[in-house]
Amino acid sequence: MIRAAAIQLCSSDTPLDNLEATCSLITEAAANNASLIVTPEVTNCVSTSRAHQSAVLTTQDRDPTLLAIRKLCKELSVTVVIGSLALKSETDTRFVNRSFVIGPDGDIINTYDKIHMFDVALSDTETYHESSGYAPGDSAVLSETPVGNIGLSICYDVRFPHLYRRLAHHGADILTVPAAFSVTTGQAHWDVLLRARAIENGCYVIAAAQTGTHAQQNSDPRATYGHSMIISPWGDVLSGLEADIGICYADLDLSRVKVARERVPSLLNERQFDGPIR
User: Fold this and answer.
1) How many Cα atoms within 13 Å fall on the side-chain side of residue 17?
2) Domain count, the chain
3) Residue 273 burial by Cβ neighbours in a 10 Å radius (0-12, 13-18, 19+)
4) Cα–Cα distance, 55 to 102 (Å, whole number)
5) Which residues are catalytic?
6) 3-class DSSP state of 193
7) How far is 122 from 183, CA to CA, in rounded Å?
8) S-S: 190 plus which of 42, 97, 129, 186, CB 3.0-4.6 Å?
9) Which element (helix H / strand E) includes 201?
10) Residue 240 is part of which domain span?
11) pLDDT of 128
12) Half-sphere exposure (Cβ direction) of 230: Cα atoms closer than 13 Å
Protein backbone atom coordinates (compact mmCIF):
# COMPACT_ATOMS: atom_id res chain seq x y z
CA MET A 1 0.00 0.00 0.00
CA ILE A 2 1.32 3.44 -0.96
CA ARG A 3 0.12 6.61 0.70
CA ALA A 4 -0.06 9.36 -1.92
CA ALA A 5 -0.51 13.08 -1.44
CA ALA A 6 -1.59 15.77 -3.91
CA ILE A 7 -0.53 19.26 -2.89
CA GLN A 8 -2.67 22.26 -3.85
CA LEU A 9 -0.92 25.64 -4.07
CA CYS A 10 -1.64 29.24 -4.95
CA SER A 11 1.77 30.13 -6.34
CA SER A 12 2.65 33.74 -7.04
CA ASP A 13 5.20 35.02 -9.54
CA THR A 14 7.91 35.12 -6.83
CA PRO A 15 9.71 31.75 -6.83
CA LEU A 16 11.36 32.00 -3.41
CA ASP A 17 8.04 32.78 -1.71
CA ASN A 18 6.47 29.76 -3.40
CA LEU A 19 9.39 27.55 -2.38
CA GLU A 20 8.75 28.13 1.32
CA ALA A 21 5.08 27.18 0.98
CA THR A 22 5.87 24.14 -1.16
CA CYS A 23 8.51 22.74 1.17
CA SER A 24 6.23 23.24 4.16
CA LEU A 25 3.45 21.20 2.54
CA ILE A 26 5.83 18.46 1.36
CA THR A 27 7.12 18.17 4.92
CA GLU A 28 3.56 18.00 6.25
CA ALA A 29 2.63 15.29 3.73
CA ALA A 30 5.68 13.21 4.70
CA ALA A 31 4.79 13.60 8.38
CA ASN A 32 1.39 12.12 7.49
CA ASN A 33 3.15 9.05 6.03
CA ALA A 34 2.89 9.95 2.35
CA SER A 35 5.64 8.22 0.36
CA LEU A 36 4.54 9.70 -3.00
CA ILE A 37 3.91 13.44 -3.12
CA VAL A 38 2.81 15.40 -6.20
CA THR A 39 2.89 19.18 -6.60
CA PRO A 40 1.03 21.29 -9.20
CA GLU A 41 2.03 22.65 -12.58
CA VAL A 42 4.41 25.63 -12.44
CA THR A 43 5.02 25.06 -8.76
CA ASN A 44 7.77 27.67 -8.75
CA CYS A 45 6.15 30.57 -10.62
CA VAL A 46 2.70 31.43 -11.97
CA SER A 47 3.16 34.42 -14.27
CA THR A 48 1.61 35.79 -17.44
CA SER A 49 4.49 38.24 -18.01
CA ARG A 50 7.27 36.88 -20.22
CA ALA A 51 9.50 39.78 -19.17
CA HIS A 52 9.03 38.96 -15.50
CA GLN A 53 9.68 35.27 -16.15
CA SER A 54 12.93 36.18 -17.92
CA ALA A 55 13.98 38.13 -14.83
CA VAL A 56 13.18 35.48 -12.20
CA LEU A 57 13.47 32.08 -13.88
CA THR A 58 16.68 30.06 -14.22
CA THR A 59 17.90 27.01 -16.11
CA GLN A 60 17.40 23.58 -14.55
CA ASP A 61 20.89 23.35 -13.05
CA ARG A 62 20.42 26.58 -11.10
CA ASP A 63 16.76 26.43 -10.12
CA PRO A 64 16.41 26.91 -6.34
CA THR A 65 13.09 25.04 -6.13
CA LEU A 66 14.53 21.93 -7.74
CA LEU A 67 17.64 22.03 -5.57
CA ALA A 68 15.62 22.46 -2.36
CA ILE A 69 13.10 19.72 -3.15
CA ARG A 70 15.86 17.28 -4.08
CA LYS A 71 17.46 17.93 -0.69
CA LEU A 72 14.10 17.56 1.07
CA CYS A 73 13.36 14.24 -0.65
CA LYS A 74 16.62 12.85 0.70
CA GLU A 75 15.98 14.15 4.20
CA LEU A 76 12.42 12.78 4.29
CA SER A 77 13.00 9.62 2.19
CA VAL A 78 10.04 10.35 -0.09
CA THR A 79 9.38 10.30 -3.82
CA VAL A 80 8.17 13.64 -5.16
CA VAL A 81 6.75 14.42 -8.57
CA ILE A 82 7.27 18.13 -9.04
CA GLY A 83 4.25 18.71 -11.24
CA SER A 84 6.28 21.16 -13.23
CA LEU A 85 8.74 24.01 -13.00
CA ALA A 86 8.87 26.93 -15.39
CA LEU A 87 12.50 27.10 -16.50
CA LYS A 88 14.73 28.80 -18.99
CA SER A 89 15.65 26.46 -21.81
CA GLU A 90 19.21 25.50 -22.60
CA THR A 91 18.38 25.21 -26.32
CA ASP A 92 15.39 27.48 -27.10
CA THR A 93 14.59 31.15 -26.64
CA ARG A 94 11.30 30.07 -25.06
CA PHE A 95 10.87 28.61 -21.58
CA VAL A 96 10.16 24.96 -20.79
CA ASN A 97 7.36 23.55 -18.63
CA ARG A 98 9.13 20.54 -17.07
CA SER A 99 7.99 17.87 -14.64
CA PHE A 100 10.52 16.12 -12.39
CA VAL A 101 10.43 12.77 -10.60
CA ILE A 102 12.71 12.91 -7.56
CA GLY A 103 13.56 9.71 -5.71
CA PRO A 104 13.99 9.24 -1.94
CA ASP A 105 17.76 9.55 -2.42
CA GLY A 106 17.29 13.05 -3.87
CA ASP A 107 18.31 12.02 -7.38
CA ILE A 108 16.33 13.01 -10.47
CA ILE A 109 14.75 9.80 -11.80
CA ASN A 110 13.20 11.37 -14.88
CA THR A 111 11.93 14.58 -16.47
CA TYR A 112 9.08 15.35 -18.84
CA ASP A 113 8.44 18.48 -20.91
CA LYS A 114 4.79 19.32 -21.52
CA ILE A 115 3.87 18.24 -25.04
CA HIS A 116 0.55 19.98 -25.71
CA MET A 117 0.51 23.78 -25.59
CA PHE A 118 -2.61 25.58 -24.35
CA ASP A 119 -3.35 27.81 -27.36
CA VAL A 120 -7.04 28.58 -27.00
CA ALA A 121 -9.57 31.43 -27.07
CA LEU A 122 -12.19 30.66 -24.45
CA SER A 123 -13.91 34.03 -24.99
CA ASP A 124 -13.19 37.51 -26.30
CA THR A 125 -11.54 38.34 -22.97
CA GLU A 126 -9.90 35.04 -22.01
CA THR A 127 -7.25 33.79 -24.41
CA TYR A 128 -4.05 31.80 -23.98
CA HIS A 129 -1.12 31.27 -26.33
CA GLU A 130 1.24 29.06 -24.39
CA SER A 131 3.38 28.16 -27.39
CA SER A 132 4.55 31.77 -27.71
CA GLY A 133 6.36 31.46 -24.39
CA TYR A 134 7.05 27.73 -23.98
CA ALA A 135 8.75 25.18 -26.20
CA PRO A 136 6.76 21.92 -26.35
CA GLY A 137 8.26 18.57 -25.48
CA ASP A 138 8.30 15.69 -27.93
CA SER A 139 8.52 12.53 -25.79
CA ALA A 140 6.15 10.57 -23.57
CA VAL A 141 7.81 9.60 -20.27
CA LEU A 142 7.23 6.59 -18.02
CA SER A 143 9.19 6.53 -14.75
CA GLU A 144 10.03 3.43 -12.76
CA THR A 145 10.08 4.53 -9.13
CA PRO A 146 10.13 2.90 -5.68
CA VAL A 147 6.37 3.53 -5.46
CA GLY A 148 5.33 2.22 -8.89
CA ASN A 149 5.47 3.05 -12.57
CA ILE A 150 4.42 6.66 -13.08
CA GLY A 151 3.28 8.11 -16.40
CA LEU A 152 3.89 11.84 -16.59
CA SER A 153 1.72 14.56 -18.11
CA ILE A 154 0.93 18.22 -17.48
CA CYS A 155 -2.43 20.04 -17.51
CA TYR A 156 -3.67 20.48 -21.12
CA ASP A 157 -2.22 17.05 -21.95
CA VAL A 158 -5.30 15.60 -20.22
CA ARG A 159 -7.37 16.36 -23.35
CA PHE A 160 -5.24 14.04 -25.50
CA PRO A 161 -6.12 10.46 -24.48
CA HIS A 162 -3.65 8.78 -26.84
CA LEU A 163 -0.78 9.98 -24.61
CA TYR A 164 -2.19 8.16 -21.58
CA ARG A 165 -3.08 5.09 -23.62
CA ARG A 166 0.54 4.79 -24.67
CA LEU A 167 1.72 5.18 -21.09
CA ALA A 168 -0.74 2.50 -19.91
CA HIS A 169 0.34 0.08 -22.64
CA HIS A 170 3.94 0.55 -21.49
CA GLY A 171 3.15 -0.29 -17.88
CA ALA A 172 1.97 2.82 -16.06
CA ASP A 173 0.25 2.15 -12.73
CA ILE A 174 -0.15 5.82 -11.83
CA LEU A 175 -0.78 8.83 -14.07
CA THR A 176 0.10 12.29 -12.80
CA VAL A 177 -1.83 15.29 -14.13
CA PRO A 178 -0.50 18.40 -12.36
CA ALA A 179 -2.33 21.49 -13.54
CA ALA A 180 -3.03 25.19 -13.46
CA PHE A 181 -6.49 24.80 -15.00
CA SER A 182 -8.53 27.85 -15.89
CA VAL A 183 -11.70 28.38 -13.89
CA THR A 184 -13.84 28.32 -17.05
CA THR A 185 -12.61 24.95 -18.30
CA GLY A 186 -12.20 23.55 -14.81
CA GLN A 187 -15.85 24.00 -13.93
CA ALA A 188 -16.88 22.34 -17.18
CA HIS A 189 -14.36 19.57 -17.75
CA TRP A 190 -11.80 18.96 -14.98
CA ASP A 191 -13.33 16.07 -13.06
CA VAL A 192 -14.81 14.25 -16.06
CA LEU A 193 -11.52 14.34 -18.00
CA LEU A 194 -9.54 13.03 -15.03
CA ARG A 195 -12.00 10.23 -14.29
CA ALA A 196 -12.07 9.27 -17.96
CA ARG A 197 -8.27 8.96 -18.09
CA ALA A 198 -8.38 6.71 -15.01
CA ILE A 199 -11.24 4.54 -16.25
CA GLU A 200 -10.11 3.99 -19.82
CA ASN A 201 -6.56 3.05 -18.78
CA GLY A 202 -7.20 1.28 -15.45
CA CYS A 203 -4.71 3.58 -13.71
CA TYR A 204 -4.61 5.67 -10.58
CA VAL A 205 -4.68 9.39 -11.41
CA ILE A 206 -3.10 12.01 -9.15
CA ALA A 207 -4.03 15.54 -10.14
CA ALA A 208 -2.38 18.26 -8.04
CA ALA A 209 -3.59 21.73 -8.98
CA GLN A 210 -2.98 25.42 -8.59
CA THR A 211 -5.90 27.27 -7.03
CA GLY A 212 -7.24 30.75 -6.40
CA THR A 213 -6.06 34.18 -7.52
CA HIS A 214 -2.32 34.33 -8.10
CA ALA A 215 -0.46 37.51 -7.14
CA GLN A 216 1.32 39.06 -10.14
CA GLN A 217 3.79 41.93 -9.89
CA ASN A 218 3.76 43.05 -13.51
CA SER A 219 0.47 41.84 -14.98
CA ASP A 220 -3.16 41.24 -14.13
CA PRO A 221 -3.83 38.50 -11.56
CA ARG A 222 -4.54 35.02 -12.89
CA ALA A 223 -7.17 32.68 -11.44
CA THR A 224 -7.03 28.88 -11.43
CA TYR A 225 -9.61 26.24 -10.57
CA GLY A 226 -8.04 24.05 -7.87
CA HIS A 227 -10.00 20.88 -7.01
CA SER A 228 -6.99 18.58 -6.72
CA MET A 229 -7.99 14.93 -6.56
CA ILE A 230 -6.80 11.33 -6.48
CA ILE A 231 -8.79 8.80 -8.52
CA SER A 232 -8.84 4.99 -8.48
CA PRO A 233 -8.36 2.75 -11.55
CA TRP A 234 -12.15 2.17 -11.48
CA GLY A 235 -12.81 5.91 -11.66
CA ASP A 236 -13.74 6.54 -8.02
CA VAL A 237 -12.61 9.85 -6.52
CA LEU A 238 -10.69 8.67 -3.46
CA SER A 239 -10.01 12.13 -2.07
CA GLY A 240 -10.07 15.72 -3.19
CA LEU A 241 -9.98 19.39 -2.32
CA GLU A 242 -12.08 22.34 -3.39
CA ALA A 243 -10.50 25.80 -3.59
CA ASP A 244 -8.37 25.91 -0.45
CA ILE A 245 -4.59 25.49 -0.34
CA GLY A 246 -3.78 22.14 1.24
CA ILE A 247 -3.20 18.42 0.74
CA CYS A 248 -5.42 15.49 -0.13
CA TYR A 249 -4.35 11.91 0.59
CA ALA A 250 -5.23 8.43 -0.59
CA ASP A 251 -3.85 4.94 -0.03
CA LEU A 252 -3.01 3.30 -3.35
CA ASP A 253 -3.13 -0.48 -3.70
CA LEU A 254 -1.43 -1.15 -7.02
CA SER A 255 -3.06 -4.60 -7.25
CA ARG A 256 -6.28 -2.70 -8.03
CA VAL A 257 -4.75 -1.70 -11.36
CA LYS A 258 -4.64 -5.35 -12.41
CA VAL A 259 -8.15 -5.97 -11.07
CA ALA A 260 -9.63 -3.02 -12.98
CA ARG A 261 -7.94 -4.07 -16.22
CA GLU A 262 -9.18 -7.64 -15.84
CA ARG A 263 -12.77 -6.53 -15.19
CA VAL A 264 -12.77 -4.37 -18.34
CA PRO A 265 -9.82 -5.52 -20.49
CA SER A 266 -9.93 -2.62 -22.93
CA LEU A 267 -6.14 -2.49 -23.22
CA LEU A 268 -6.18 -6.09 -24.47
CA ASN A 269 -9.30 -5.69 -26.59
CA GLU A 270 -8.04 -2.58 -28.34
CA ARG A 271 -7.57 -2.84 -32.11
CA GLN A 272 -5.20 -0.51 -33.89
CA PHE A 273 -6.99 1.17 -36.77
CA ASP A 274 -5.68 3.59 -39.36
CA GLY A 275 -7.87 2.66 -42.29
CA PRO A 276 -10.36 4.85 -44.14
CA ILE A 277 -13.60 6.15 -42.66
CA ARG A 278 -16.69 5.22 -44.68
Assistant:
1) 13
2) 1
3) exposed
4) 26
5) 41, 114, 155
6) helix
7) 11
8) 186
9) helix 183-201
10) 2-267
11) 77
12) 21
Mapped onto helix, strand or coil, the DSSP state of residue 62 is helix
Which tens digits make up the pLDDT trace of 111-124?
A: 999 999 887 878 87
Whole-angstrom distance, CA of residue 264 vs CA of residue 272: 18
Where residue 57 sits, what CATH number does that domain have?
A: 3.60.110.10
Residue 276 in domain: no
Domain assignment present for 48: yes
Backbone angles phi, psi at 268, to 5 degrees: -80, -35
Does 208 map to a domain? Answer: yes
pLDDT of residue 162 exceeding 90, the answer is yes
pLDDT value of position 75: 98
CA distances from 81 to 67, 92, 261 (A): 14, 24, 25
Ordered DSSP codes for 30-71: HHTT-SEEE--TTSS---S-HHHHHHH---GGG-HHHHHHHH
Within a domain: 219:
yes
Give the Cα separation of 194 and 158 in Å (integer).
7
Other C-beta atoms within 10 Å of 25: how many? 19
**How far is the C-alpha of 226 from the C-alpha of 167, rounded, in Å?**
25
Q: Phi first, then psi: what are they for 261, rounded to 5°?
A: -75, -25
- Between β-strands 95-102 and 36-38, what pairing exists: parallel, antiparallel or unpaired? unpaired
pTM: 0.96
Question: For the chain, how many residues are written?
Answer: 278
**Cα separation values, 147 from 77, 81, 102, 107, 111, Å:** 12, 11, 12, 15, 17
Give dist(CA 158, CA 50) in Å, integer. Answer: 25
Task: Give the neighbor-by-neighbor strand order of the sheet with 204-207.
Answer: 142-145, 148-152, 174-176, 204-207, 229-231, 237-240
Average pLDDT over residues 176-195: 97
